[in-house]
Automatic annotation (TrEMBL):
Residue ranges of every copy of the Histidine kinase domain listed in the record: 1-157
Localisation: Cell membrane
Protein name: histidine kinase
Span within the parent record: 215 to 389 of 389
Amino acid sequence: KPLDLTAHLERIVDDVKYEAEENGLEIRLNSISRPVTVMADARRITQVFINLLTNAIRYTASGGTITVEIEERVVERNALFACVSVIDTGIGIPAEELLHLFDRFYRVEEARSRHTGGTGLGLSIAHHFVRAHGGFIQVSSQPDEGTVFTVNLPIGSSTCAADTAIQIVQWRKNV
Ligand code: ATP
Ligand code: MG
């Protein structure tokens, strides 16, 4: 079904705002002020972003910021994608862990994340749902600086090659 990602993300960000603020985090949405329509299952897309936002809240210390950005981009082979980034200023993820993040039950061997009781399923579910929509996920992170997850969903008949399911992107400050 057609889904307006801009409006949908406004609702999702609203739903987690209280939890973010309770944890001393600022959360903001930078969206383009027009609909970005993708063919998608609203409930699964909600689950994807709730999982990413829950992580951003859990793995960012008080005083940090979470930013959600929506844009439309032409990626490989002239295909148009809706790209939603969840950017945090949290603990970050070591480079050697990035490839395993999306495995079921995988959690980074890190005291701070071990203390928070997750099961290690959130990202594997998010990845599975994004793949089911013909999309892909990018991740970029720097320990002690933050993490960016970008969910790319096809617009129209755009598709992506199987080997782009997960892309690890070089960290840039102020992405
Ligand atoms: P669950 O989501 O099932 O409650 P979880 O959060 O541990 O548990 P995932 O969401 O799959 O599991 O994340 C896997 C691991 O990746 C986390 O345990 C954490 O170590 C790391 N991680 C995920 N998101 C972030 C982030 N935004 N910043 C830092 N580390 C992260
Ligand atoms: Mg999680």
